[in-house]
Every structure is written in structure tokens, then in C-alpha cells.
Amino acid sequence: MDVDTEFTTLTALIGEPTRARMLLQLLDGRALTAGELACHANASPQAASGHLGKLVAAELLAVESQGRHRYYRFARPEVADALEALASLVPTKQQPAPTSGSRYARSCYDHLAGHVAVAITQALCQRELLTLTTAKEFTVTNAGTAWFTDLGIDAKMMQQRSRRAFARPCLDWSERRHHLGGALGAAMLTRLVALDWVRRTANSRLVVFTGEGQRQLYQILGVRL
Amino acid sequence: MDVDTEFTTLTALIGEPTRARMLLQLLDGRALTAGELACHANASPQAASGHLGKLVAAELLAVESQGRHRYYRFARPEVADALEALASLVPTKQQPAPTSGSRYARSCYDHLAGHVAVAITQALCQRELLTLTTAKEFTVTNAGTAWFTDLGIDAKMMQQRSRRAFARPCLDWSERRHHLGGALGAAMLTRLVALDWVRRTANSRLVVFTGEGQRQLYQILGVRL
DNA sequence: GCCACATTTAAACCACAGGTGAACTATGGA
DNA sequence: TCCATAGTTCACCTGTGGTTTAAATGTGGC
Description:
Two copies of one chain form a homodimer.
Chain A: H1 3-15, H2 17-25, E1 32-33, H3 34-40, H4 45-57, E2 61-66, E3 69-74, H5 77-87, E4 104-108, E5 111-113, H6 114-126, E6 130-134, E7 137-140, H7 142-151, H8 155-161, E8 169-172, E9 177-180, H9 182-194, E10 198-200, E11 206-209, H10 211-221
Antiparallel strand pairs in A: 1-3, 2-3, 4-5, 4-11, 6-7, 8-9, 10-11
The structure holds a DNA duplex.
């Protein structure tokens, strides 16, 4: 096969919007399941499966089966490098006011993401409610357990019961900083929604903080939106 | 527009085979005309024009009009970087490294280009045989006229007779410096070929300096290849 | 003034690539 | 054992996006 042709097949592979979104999701280096990738990319499971198959066949992704899940990740670091380079081409003009505080955040699969999530996670760490023990795991301190209990989340119980990664740092590529993912991150978003501190929007990963949510967030974490 | 969306539009832009081929052509840093890009990409002029328009609109390419040609080049070096990274993902064995050998130069449409051309133009300016009067025009000094006469080029006559831009500075993308284009630049290449100081290669814009050419160039301009 | 060439624009066409729905495999939990 | 969940495969259909055909714009050379 011609080198030209190989290049074009490669770019066509990366260029398809759904595939591009899935690849973007993997940029933080985590291995994600087919379902998670499908959800992020706004695609049906079948569609995602087809796309992932092509990406694996092209040796852009590698797949690992664990139980009934299949975890996809980049086949080699160069793939991530190339995608980073591509992502850096996106005009960055509209990353306004990380500090000015937006009521808007977004959800990342099932937990809070974006600069609000980063700010929250930073505050949790700063107050030593959360500590980053390894590169891939947050640990909830005793004070943290109490804090989560106050919020209405039984962190301890959750850690014992859940098979899912408990408190995983999730790198937000647009923010270049970690925020809280995993089961705890998901529980937190669920709880915040239940408290009506944030509301989901229809057909979008965007979530918006209510006025009450903003007040409470400032009160319990000192985070001003 | 969402960051995700911007990324996908970007990748979709790069992912289209014809566009990808054109971008690949530009990877060596040269600025190419729409026609040349169309030819290389195996596309009709109209199709190429449409694609190029999109790439320019997305600020991946920049375009510069020169006469009835339009030269396309990367809008910023990061674009080339990203494409390099993508190209490096192609599994096949790499082709031999581009000739950094100084005997090699290349032609730009009809005149000498590349770092040799830049060196020559610099030398001409340094010895005040050529002066850059406006941003778009070189002027041949009296000493310059004599120098060109010695070379076998009647610059004065040419300037009177030719309607074509006489001595235009031509920006070489890969060198980031101007070199001598226009009628005078074309005449110079023609003359150098006639003198057998440089030889054209078949099916390529590459030209190579002969041993004699290298000696002479040093003698009359002090340019060492 | 003319013609030739390079390139762009507009409109009609159509192929291919991705989405969908249904059916199938496999794993885990009761 | 049964059922729910995760994921894949297949066949069909639809719509986007690129190509084509045609005509217009603009520049250079005579």
C-alpha cells in the first residue's frame, strides 16, 4: 500500500467525528470501556463497537478484556502524542474566565468535569479531605469521610461495596488538571443533583449550578463560582 | 462552539483523503499553487479549490496571491507539527531523509528556491548588487547591473521588455526568508542551467549544483555551498 | 483591445460511510 | 437455572459531503 494511501486511511480513521470524540476521551491515558466511550461520544453501543473495531484494526487502539467489559486504550504513546498535537490546533480563544466563575460545568460520563470540577477537587485536596496517594488513586482522609457524610455520601460504605474504581483522578484535557472521577465522583454528582445544587441539561453534558448550589459550595469548600 | 465540536470539525477537515494528500504535499514546507496541489492530490481544480478554501477558513492554511497563481502554505508551524506527528503513525518504513546536502536546491515555479537561493539573495543584497526598495520589489543597483551582465543576463533590457514582475522577493516558507523571484529570478535559474552550474532533475523540482557551479558561486558571490 | 491560463463559484448529482434495529455471544449475580 | 448487563455482528437504510459539470472572475502576455 502506498504511503500516501496509508496516511489518508489513517486520517480518515481519526477524522470521523464519533471516532475523534472517543479518541479525545482517551487522551488522559485511561483505559475506558466500550460503553463509556460510546456514552461520551454520543453514539449507540453498536456504532461505537464498529468504530472501536476499526481503530483497533488500525493499531491505534488496543483492547483488553476484563470480565464482561472491554477496556480500550491507545496502542502506543505516539498515538496520544499525535492527538495532543491535533488538539493543540484548536483555537483556544474561548477558554474565558476560569477564575471569573461560571455557573456552568459539564459532566464527564457520570461525574462533574471542567474547571468547576477541578476547582472543587483542588479545594478538597487543599483542605486535606482528599489526598492523591498514587498517580491513579485518591484517598479519602478521616476528615474527608466526615465531610462526605455531611454532604450525604457514605464514602466508606461505598468503597467497600463498589467494585468500580473508587476515587480516580480524571484528567481533564481542556483544563490540564485532575478532577474527581470514579465511583465517588459519580456519587457526588448524583448527590449534588439530588440536592438541586446543580441541574443537568437535556441532551447535553452541560450542568448548571443553581444559586443555592453556588452558596453551599462556597460555604462548605470556599469555592466561589 | 464546544471544544469537542471544534476538535471534531478539525479532524474531519484533515481526515478527508483529498485534503489529507494536499496537506501531506505541503509537509516539506514549500508553498504550492492550487493547481500543483490539485494535481498531486489527484483532484480536479474545482474540487481542490473547494478543499483549500475550507482549510484556509479553518486557519490551517494561509494563501498568498502571486500573479495568477495562489500559493498555499501552512498557516502556522503547529499545523506542520501535528501533521508530522500524524504521519509518524504510519507503520511503514520511512523514506530516506530529505537532502540537507548543500549541493541540492530546488526550484520554486521557475526560479531557484530553498536555502541556497536565500544565501544567494542575501549575498546579492550584502554586496549592494540588489536592494530591497519596497516590501514587494527588489531594485538592481548599477553595480548589480554590471554583475548580472557578467553573468550573461541583461537586467536592464529585461526590465524594460518584460511585463512580468521584474525582481520580486519570494518568501520561502521553509527558510522564512526571501529569495529572488520574478523575471530576474527566472532568468537567473535559466542562465545557471545554461552554464551547467546547476542541473534540473527529472520529475522533481529539485536542482543540483555541479562542482563547477559551486566553485563559480563562491568566486562571484562568496557563497560557499 | 484580445486570448490563454489559473483559479474560484454555483448548482446538480450520487456514492459511500455511518446510524439503526434485531439478533447473537458471553459474563456475572441471584 | 434464569435473567440482566456488556458487547458484538449483520443487513438495511439514510444523509452528508465530495465530485462533476458549467460558467464566472482575474491576471498575464501579445
